[in-house]
User: What shape does this take?
Amino acid sequence: MNKFVISILGKDSPGIIAAVTRVFFEHDFTIEDVSQTMVQNQFSGIFIVSGPKLVSHDQLLEALQDNTTIFDLHFHIRDLDADDAVPTPGDCESFVITTRGPDRKGLVSRITAVFAAHHVNVTQLRAVFRGGETPENNFMIYEVDIPLSVDQKKLRQSLNARATELNLEISIQHKNIFEAMNRI
Assistant: This one.
């Protein structure tokens, strides 16, 4: 079995996912994992797929390019070891950390430096800077995995200190609580 990670970038347009997944289907590939988003007007997708050994990396890339020419997409394919175990969060808890406040250069870098110093892994990041003169419209949402071995009190102190330094409001919630409170 072949296993690939495929990243796709291009201007967003209806039908991209349909065209890409049709190629996977026609070449007998199974989608094992996918993450797709739109940033401003740009499509970004990452797929992990597995399929028959007889379809090579180059053949799959050519099929994707040939069947998506109307979208002008950029593809990157990397081989994965089919025997690689699916990563698990291990001894971690998932949290959602949100910030709101004025935009400035280095904002994401300075917040994520606190995470790195405490061995916290960012699993998802969404930043929306639309405030201009109204900084309350600038949001960052970090989904993170915090190892059980991390002193959460020290992590919270570090995050609160950094947020104060950057003039940000910060909220730290367990992912289960965040999802329960924000359920539609």
